[in-house]
Design brief:
The complex is a heterodimer of chains A (117) and B (114). Chain A has 117 residues and is mainly beta. Chain A has no helices and 11 strands. Chain B is mainly β. In chain B, strands 2, 4, 5, 9, 10 and 11 form a 6-stranded mixed sheet that branches. In chain B, strands 1-3-8-7-6 form a 5-stranded antiparallel sheet, with no helix packed on it. In chain B, strand 6 and strand 7 form a beta hairpin. The chains are: A mainly beta (117), B mainly beta (114).
């Protein structure tokens, strides 16, 4: 149980285009999902917290207009990278917190490798 | 705010030898502590966690960690390394002061020599 999927696993896009990444909890409901970014050989940095039915909360320094997050259902959150540029190339990982609220549980997706050319 | 320091960005061990990965944390309130493993181009897999209770925590794949409040440490060990243990390992902390959001250490790369 507790499986989180991400789609796509890899995406290559041209500079200036937008890319949408999906994060799904397959066998549980998740009121809260998290989006992380990981540069090569580095740790995970929390970008934003996504709450079902409300606006996402972004960490300091993350451009909310560039990284649009939508959490429309209890099993799906999406991250859209708008007007992507090469510096947005990274590994994006989501995680989901099961509902009813479990304060410490998070299950991670397999990640999405974004390359902007 | 909480934070994590992982001592040693890279650890190399011989197959069959002890694996020891060090993690120290900072938290103003009782922490939850985690160790995750990441294989190349994959997400994170939880190895073990400490929330409350017994301070020696056993996880998957033969790993264990001990929560030492007096030392603010949560070091990860495995008695005998296997080739399949070669991966990136992250220590993480969360607590109620930040709605239990995870803060990760910088990570430790483990290589296993045959």
């Amino acid at each position: 149980g507790a499986v989180v999927s991400q789609h796509p696993s890899r995406v290559i896009c041209k500079s200036g285009t937008s890319v949408k990444i999906e994060c799904r909890s397959l066998d549980f409901q998740a009121t809260t999902m998290f989006w992380y970014r990981q540069f090569p050989k580095q740790s995970l940095m929390l970008m934003a917290t996504s709450n079902e039915g409300s606006k996402a909360t972004y960490e300091q320094g993350v451009e909310k207009d560039k990284f649009l997050i939508n959490h429309a259902s209890l099993t799906l959150s999406t991250l859209t990278v708008t007007s992507a540029h090469p510096e947005d190339s990274s590994f994006y990982i989501c995680s989901a917190r099961p509902s009813p609220t479990s304060d410490y549980e998070q299950y991670f997706g397999p990640g999405t490798r974004l390359t902007v050319t | 705010a909480q934070s994590v320091t992982q001592l040693g960005s890279h650890v190399s061990v011989s197959e069959g030898a002890l694996v020891l990965l060090r993690c120290n944390y900072s938290s103003s309130v009782p922490p939850y502590l985690f160790w995750y493993v990441q294989y190349p181009n994959q997400g994170l897999q939880l190895l073990l966690k400490y929330t409350t209770g017994a301070t020696l925590v056993k996880g998957i794949n033969g790993f264990e960690a001990e929560f030492k409040k007096s030392e603010t440490s949560f070091h990860l060990t495995k008695p005998s390394a296997h080739m399949s243990d070669a991966a990136e390992y992250f220590c993480a902390v969360s607590d109620r002061s930040n709605d239990y959001k995870l803060s990760f250490g910088a990570g430790t790369t483990v290589t296993v020599r045959a």
